[in-house]
Design goal:
The protein is an alpha+beta fold and about 190 residues long. It contains three helices and ten strands. The strands form three sheets. Strands 2, 4, 5, 7 and 9 form a five-stranded antiparallel beta sheet that branches. It has a three-stranded antiparallel beta sheet with strand order 1-10-3, with no helix packed on it. The two termini are about 25 Å apart.
Length: about 190
């Protein structure tokens, strides 16, 4: 899949990263307009015709990515173990940071607090200093007594990193685990 930072929609001409960064900086200038000589310069640099031109196509490397991961089916009991599911970081997420992690179950735990760790296998590092917990009789971690905390020393991801969902505590009778991971570009 072509990253919008590297390729122009409808063209197979790579755009050097330096040009994209120059364009990004130009557009971040609040006094800059999209018309006149600047637009002509931009179109000439990217060899675009007006119907194909959209600033979003050129600049739109995602500013954030939210991944919702179904770890256990709704009818499957949550069980403990490392790497219950493993995902691969796509090139569109290269350089992003994990900024939030949450979880939910479709059947609540009657005792015990389901507890989840997010681990970057490639970097051999846990990504949370405080793991995700779902309190007894609750469906989500959003209301947990102890909210998860991202480890800012280990929050970055790169293309191809393997990210694992580790279940450290299953709870009793909990089913249907879903993990939501939020990533964003560093500021």
């Amino acid at each position: 899949m072509k990253s919008s930072l590297q390729w122009v929609k409808g063209k197979d001409r790579p755009i050097p990263r330096e040009e994209v960064e120059d364009i990004r900086r130009s557009l971040e200038n609040p006094q800059q307009t999209y018309g006149g000589p600047w637009l002509e310069w931009l179109k000439a640099r990217l060899a675009l015709e007006p119907p194909d031109f959209l600033a979003e196509d050129i600049l739109a490397r995602p500013l954030e990515a939210i991944l919702q991961i179904k770890v256990f089916a709704d009818t499957d009991t949550v069980t403990i173990g490392d790497g219950k599911i493993i995902i691969v970081v796509s090139d569109d997420m290269d350089g992003m940071n994990l900024v939030d992690a949450d979880a939910a179950v479709t059947t609540v735990s009657s005792s015990g607090t389901p507890t989840v760790q997010i681990r970057n296998i490639t970097q051999a590092a846990d990504m949370l200093t405080t793991r995700i917990t779902i309190d007894v009789s609750e469906f989500t971690s959003y209301t947990a007594a102890t909210p998860p905390v991202v480890d800012t020393a280990n929050d970055d991801v790169a293309t191809g990193n393997l990210i694992a969902v580790d279940v450290d505590v299953a709870g009793t009778g909990a089913k249907g685990l879903i993990v939501t991971l939020s990533f964003s570009q560093p500021s």
